[in-house]
Amino acid sequence: MAxxxxxxxxxxxEWVRVEGDTIRVGITDYAVEQLSDLAFVDLPEVGDRVTxxxxxxxxxxxxxxxELISPVDGEVVETNTDVVDQLQLLQNAPxxxxxxxxxxxxxxxxxxxxxxxxxxxxxxxxxxx
Length: 129
Description:
Layout: E1 8-9, E2 14-19, E3 22-27, H1 29-35, E4 38-42, E5 49-50, E6 55-61, E7 65-69, E8 74-79, H2 81-85, H3 88-92, E9 101-105, H4 117-126
Antiparallel strand pairs: 1-2, 2-3, 3-9, 4-6, 5-8, 6-7, 8-9
């Protein structure tokens, strides 16, 4: 799967799409593939505060539990409740219908530290996967 070039990527395998004064956050196809058999996702509530570099939720597979890491400080303005009930959205369309949360960042310039698609590809290769 070709990763969208218009997104930003975190080394913790989340993707970010800037949408006006908010960002949409999901996990990459690579993360979904590594987790494999998804069993459960726990997302924050609308209005919750998230902190850059800290967990805002978790995703569980039959193999492991992985934390979902926030790319920014901010407020959750929407959660994708569809993905909670239909985990196949993460597997089938991780960059479209499989998004997880929308966040209003406290400081949009915090996104500057994220990777572009090419740098994310190199990061995956350096991880040795």
